Amino acid sequence: MSEVFADRRGRLRDRCAASGSAAALVSRPANVRYLAGGAPPGAVLLVGAGDDVLLCPRTPTGDPVEGRLDERLRLVVLPGTGTDPAVAAVGLARQEGADVLAVEEHHLSVARHRAMGSVEPRVRLADLGTAIEQERIVKDEDEITCLRIAAEITDQALGELLESILVGRTERHLALELERRLVDHGADGPAFATSVATGPNAGRGGHRPSDRRVEEGDFLSVCLGANYRGYRCEIGRTFVIGTSPADWQIELYDLVFAAQRAARESLTPGRAYRDVDRAARQILDGAGYGECVPPVLGHGVGLEIEEDPQLAPGAMGKLDACVPVTVEPGVHLPGRGGVRIDDTLVVRQEADGGPELLTITTKELLAL
Q1: Considering only CA atoms, which of 227, 234, 240 is closest in space to residue 300?
Q2: Which of 5-9, 161-165, 235-239, 284-288 has the lowest mean pLDDT?
Q3: Cα separations (Å) of 265 from 251, 338, 357?
Q4: Pairing label, strands 235-240, 231-232
Q5: CB atoms near residue 167 (< 10 Å)
Q6: CA distance 221 to 183
Q7: Residues near 186 by Cβ (< 8 Å), separated by ≥ 6?
Q8: 265-303: per-residue pLDDT in tens?
């Protein structure tokens, strides 16, 4: 893997040289991990001015959750406390001859940027922009393997929950149990805060689990994902509790399922992001649920649970192969509940079988 990280840093170095920057300072943790193999808390990465250097406020613990650092990096642990690694990196860049340093302005606070600019006035700070985030959109097969394992863990955790007794248990308790099961099956932790929503809460995106108890006849919607070696996936499913679904529940579920299938089938290289969104949205709009649909159909996943691209009506750009995305349409009816169906897939060429579905838990409307 050292060669992979070195190649990534090499591409960043070339980009900086082309734009007139002698070096780049990477501070956003996910970007540090992408380029260095790991991201100890508070660490920043200096690329391009001599050796590639990881500056840390304290000695890395080696915790697998932080990743495994590329051994080719030079590690600098700052003495004492209170020294900002980003500020120290500016001084180091100057010592190594840099006069222009590209930084991630979108990640830096105003105060931190000012401190970096004042420590070495002879070093001009330029904006790196989202160059690394854009590089991260297309995944290599090692990254996709990590996502595939994360999805397998997530499917296992959800499958076990579906075999247990659910009536009478609270949303909060079920969410905690799912997160424990993720870790039991090998996850570093949850990819994001697990959502469990019942009854009138079901189908609501980003619902925070409450003390509401599961009741007979409820819709139950869950959204969870595993973090495996830094890579994060997402799955969302909706079920009915205890009894056969009511007619309105079947109708709503079938509608959201049709919208999700249409969007999944449109995940082909070259397809515009907004066209994928439109494939699902026009089905829900046509049924009169346009105002109940979330503003974003899906998004990229990887070292962060929400990455580019965004699959939304106003999104600009087109899909590439080997881009993992979520497809997560939902409809929430205030006071009644709703349906959410969410999968993680990888965009593939038709010759390679089309979109690869990573999260395989059944999408049949089960009565649990």
Answers
A1: 234
A2: 161-165
A3: 21, 23, 11
A4: unpaired
A5: 12
A6: 21
A7: 149, 153, 228
A8: 999 999 999 999 999 999 999 999 988 888 999 999 999
Q: In the chain, what is the straight-line distance between the N-terminal and C-terminal CA atoms, in Å?
A: 44
Pairing of β 44-47 and β 23-26: antiparallel
Of 110, 130, 112, 92, the closest CA to residue 42 belongs to: 112
94's tokens: 């100057």
Of the candidates 267, 266, 300, 297, the one whose C-alpha atom is nearest the C-alpha of residue 284 is 297
Residues 6+ apart with CB under 8 A from 352: 321
Report in angstroms the alpha-carbon separations of 129 from 132, 260, 266, 319.
8, 33, 30, 21
Q: What gap in Å lies between CA 324 and CA 227, rounded to an integer? A: 15
Q: How many helices (H) and strands (E) does the chain have?
A: 9, 19
Helical segments of 106-246, H only: 110-119, 131-136, 141-162, 171-184
pTM: 0.95
Task: Provide the angle, in degrees to the nearest 10, between the axes of the packed helices 2-19 and 29-36.
Answer: 120
- Which whole-number Å values give the CA distances from 224 to 201, 243, 362, in the listed order? 16, 24, 15
- pLDDT tens string 197-246: 999 999 998 899 999 999 999 999 999 999 999 999 999 999 999 889 99
Pairing between β-strand 195-198 and β-strand 189-190 as defined by DSSP bridges = unpaired
Phi, psi angles (nearest 5°) of residue 310: -100, 130
